[in-house]
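Weekly sync, protein design subgroup
Attendees: M.S., D.O., the rotation student, P.L. (late)

Item 1: inverse folding check
M.S. brought a backbone from last month's batch and wanted to see whether the design step gives back something sensible before we order anything. D.O. pointed out we never logged the input encoding, so this time it goes straight into the notes. Structure tokens as presented (771 positions):
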């Protein structure tokens, strides 16, 4: 018996251990061409999300947020390679982390995207509202992208500019920013509470966390320009008056639980026990008591049944569309987290969960209704276009836009919002006989605009304001640009190109704080690539890289040419030492914790270098450099299928990326890589006014799957900055004894949720003409 127990216990322990070990060894073998970390738990698995990071230099566990914390300085610098590997024993996934621009650019190109698609299984939860472009791959993605891309038309940006100007004005007016008096003089020394909170001087506008307003502004932009919904900055009477009923009452959910307990107690236990009690204890005629007890039970039971089965008799909970929009935007992280748990958990009678579910249901229904309506109108153009839905039902169809259009712009009454454009594009595709989007897919894509465009833009705007506050000389340049470009305070989208410096400030912020911290890809096949080793001293050699010159290997027939940075910048890059094989022998990477070896093919063919002569028509164009065959795919027996990779230069090596390897492109590491950015930690917007390495600026993703809403976000942010900084200067609450760098370190603290989220950005606004 003992023997059987021991054998069973051994099986329970040993078999899973063997499975785990085999999986781990397989994963390690897949990524053994790259130096990196071998861990107990990988930061990319569910357990890794909750574990705290352990200190360097041991790298025992770098923590889920390590890309945002370590940037380029962590693993990449340590291993002297711009692509590093990660594998956790417990999850056994083969992971590569890369900030190698040529590699990631090729990976995301048209050819590369089929070899390295997006691992869409990880994104399934984003399909809550319907299939959409973010969670699609292959032919489905191409169809989605083809129909959704035209929605971002110039009309939308025209409208966005007007909407953003209105939103900023409304905020200033409704938050009473103009209360400051003319003769205000800032106090000589700033005051703080004992807890360290800034005490604003009379007339100053202080936000303990400016994200509170930027989130609201970005939401208003998506609501108005995105969906054509009137969004009030402050919700007054009309907000409560125009509630609509959605979902099941919270109280009925709670009562359902109570009912289940009551049902068992009242229906099964109580009648029997009451009966017995009455019969045996009272020893009188039990009938009246029994019948009254049964009557009571019956009544209670009926009540419970009514409560549970007749929710219509209960007062319905109500939710306004604006509130739903706000809650969906706010609770999306929670909703996504709930998706990995059993579904009953999200139905627990917890108020927050209940309101979240209601909000999602409400928005889905409302978007669905809007799509059906607009589609009907577009399919039958004889019918007039419906007005944008209003938050205020008493407006009887005359939307906010048609009212405000007279004061600001005539474009607002023509359903030029993103959602209408999307429906229009779908209808046009359908009419042209193409494969279009279903109504559900349109709603799915609309939800993605909210998810992808809200927090990303709001956090970036907050950080832009904070950085301008930290660097007053840059703020002054921005201000000068605004008053030169916007003397009448009545700009239109045509003025947008005037604000180059503001856009540069926004770009520089996105470089320093890229909202999307990692972009995953998966290797669909065994694929051979060329990677470059980090040049130990040559960082600056690449900074003068001309804008129009790219360093892609040219995939032609013999001889294959290759552009190296060294040849262009006039430097010879020195081969990286430890990471490269010398004399045909694989070297071990410089690591004390068991980093795998780096087998490299010896450079048998001398490198041929190609110098792109700018302006010379006889030299190949950028697209020729990109070429059709950036990878060598390998057959099952490891032989090249398309033998196009011709040589290995001194600072490069060929490696094989095995099928099913997950590759994370790391925007923070690319943005802080000194190869591409001089003084990468410095806030220097001017760098974007000169030629810069475009391939190394990837906050909006890279290649064919790059962000569809990039311009939307740029126009929105620049417009908001124009209208805010024109009238207000922005400052940091610097405590006595603190430097600006200290404050910058504080507002740079962030956590990685769906996007990079600042912990807290306190800011002070002061009216300009009174400075
Ligand atoms: C600062 C603002 C923004 C940043 C940093 C940003 C970043 C990104 C990134 C990195 C991707 C690529 C993800 C991947 O390859 O897996 C992406 C895709 C996307 N973004 Fe944005 N985004 C921003 C704003 C917006 C806005 C305002 C919208 C819409 C209104 C939007 C809509 C989309 C869509 C639809 C995609 C999917 C494209 C595709 O898969 O083909 N984004 N975004």
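Designed sequence read out in the meeting:
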């Amino acid at each position: 018996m003992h023997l059987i127990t021991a054998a069973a216990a051994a099986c329970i322990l040993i078999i899973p251990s063997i499975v785990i070990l085999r999986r781990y060894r397989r994963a390690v073998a897949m990524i053994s061409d790259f130096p990196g970390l071998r861990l107990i738990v990988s930061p990319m698995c569910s357990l890794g999300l909750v574990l705290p990071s352990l200190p360097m230099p041991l790298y025992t566990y770098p923590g889920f947020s390590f890309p945002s914390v370590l940037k380029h300085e962590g693993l990449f610098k340590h291993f002297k390679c711009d692509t590093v590997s990660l594998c956790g024993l417990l999850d056994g996934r083969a992971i590569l982390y890369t900030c190698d621009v040529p590699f990631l650019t090729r990976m995301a190109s048209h050819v590369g995207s089929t070899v390295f698609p997006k691992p869409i299984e990880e994104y399934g939860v984003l399909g809550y509202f319907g299939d959409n472009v973010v969670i699609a791959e292959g032919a489905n993605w191409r169809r989605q992208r083809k129909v959704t891309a035209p929605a971002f038309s110039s009309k939308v940006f025209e409208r966005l500019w007007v909407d953003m100007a209105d939103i900023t004005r409304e905020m200033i007016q409704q938050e009473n920013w103009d209360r400051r008096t003319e003769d205000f003089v800032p106090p000589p020394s700033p005051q703080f509470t004992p807890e360290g909170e800034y005490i604003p001087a009379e007339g100053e506008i202080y936000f303990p966390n400016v994200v509170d307003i930027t989130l609201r502004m970005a939401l208003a932009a998506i609501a108005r320009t995105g969906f054509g919904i009137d969004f009030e900055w402050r919700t007054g009477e009309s907000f409560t008056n125009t509630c609509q009923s959605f979902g099941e009452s919270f109280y009925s959910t709670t009562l359902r639980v109570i009912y289940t307990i009551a049902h068992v107690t009242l229906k099964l236990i109580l009648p029997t026990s009451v009966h017995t009690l009455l019969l045996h204890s009272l020893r009188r005629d039990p009938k009246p008591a029994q019948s009254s007890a049964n009557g009571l039970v019956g009544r209670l039971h009926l009540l419970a049944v009514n409560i549970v089965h007749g929710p219509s008799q209960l007062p319905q909970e109500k939710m306004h569309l604006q509130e739903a929009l706000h809650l969906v935007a706010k609770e999306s992280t929670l909703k996504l987290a709930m998706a990995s748990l059993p579904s009953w958990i999200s139905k627990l009678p917890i108020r927050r969960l209940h309101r979240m579910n209601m909000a999602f249901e409400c928005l889905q229904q409302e978007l669905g209704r809007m799509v059906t309506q607009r589609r009907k109108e577009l399919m039958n153009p004889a019918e007039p276009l419906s007005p944008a839905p209003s938050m205020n039902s008493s407006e009887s169809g005359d939307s906010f836009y048609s009212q405000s259009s007279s004061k600001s712009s005539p474009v607002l009454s023509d359903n030029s919002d993103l959602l209408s454009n999307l429906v229009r594009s779908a209808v046009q595709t359908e009419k042209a006989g193409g494969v279009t989007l279903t109504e559900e897919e349109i709603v799915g894509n609309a939800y993605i605009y909210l998810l992808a465009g809200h927090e990303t833009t709001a956090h970036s705007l907050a950080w832009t304001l904070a950085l301008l506050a930290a660097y007053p000389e840059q703020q002054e340049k921005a201000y000068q640009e605004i008053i030169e470009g916007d003397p009448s305070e009545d700009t239109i989208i045509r003025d947008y190109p005037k604000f180059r410096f503001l856009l540069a400030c926004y770009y520089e912020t996105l470089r320093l704080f890229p909202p999307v911290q990692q972009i995953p890809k998966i290797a669909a096949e065994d694929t051979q690539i060329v990677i470059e080793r980090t040049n130990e001293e040559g960082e600056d050699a690449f900074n003068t890289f001309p804008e129009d010159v790219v360093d892609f290997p040219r995939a032609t027939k013999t001889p294959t040419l290759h552009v190296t940075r060294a040849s262009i910048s006039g430097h010879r890059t020195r081969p990286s030492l430890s990471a490269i094989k010398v004399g045909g022998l694989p070297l071990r990477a410089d690591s004390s914790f068991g980093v795998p070896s780096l087998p490299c093919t010896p450079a048998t063919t001398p490198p041929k270098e190609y110098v792109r002569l700018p302006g010379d028509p006889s030299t190949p164009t950028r697209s020729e450099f990109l070429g059709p065959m950036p990878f060598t795919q390998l057959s099952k027996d490891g032989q090249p299928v398309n033998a196009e990779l011709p040589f290995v230069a001194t600072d490069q090596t060929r490696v094989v990326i095995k099928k099913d390897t997950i590759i994370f492109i790391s925007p923070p590491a690319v943005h802080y890589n000194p190869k591409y950015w001089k003084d990468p930690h410095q806030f220097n917007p001017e760098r974007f006014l000169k030629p810069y390495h475009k391939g190394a600026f990837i906050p909006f993703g890279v290649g064919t799957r790059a962000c569809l809403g990039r311009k939307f976000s740029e126009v929105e942010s620049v417009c908001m900055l124009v209208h805010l900084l024109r009238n207000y200067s922005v400052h940091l609450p610097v405590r006595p004894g603190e430097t600006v760098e200290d404050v910058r370190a504080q507002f740079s603290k962030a956590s990685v949720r769906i996007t990079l989220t600042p912990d807290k950005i306190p800011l002070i606004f002061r009216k300009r003409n009174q400075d």
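Discussion: The chain has a mean pLDDT of 73. The radius of gyration is 31 Å.
Action: P.L. to compare against the previous round before Friday.
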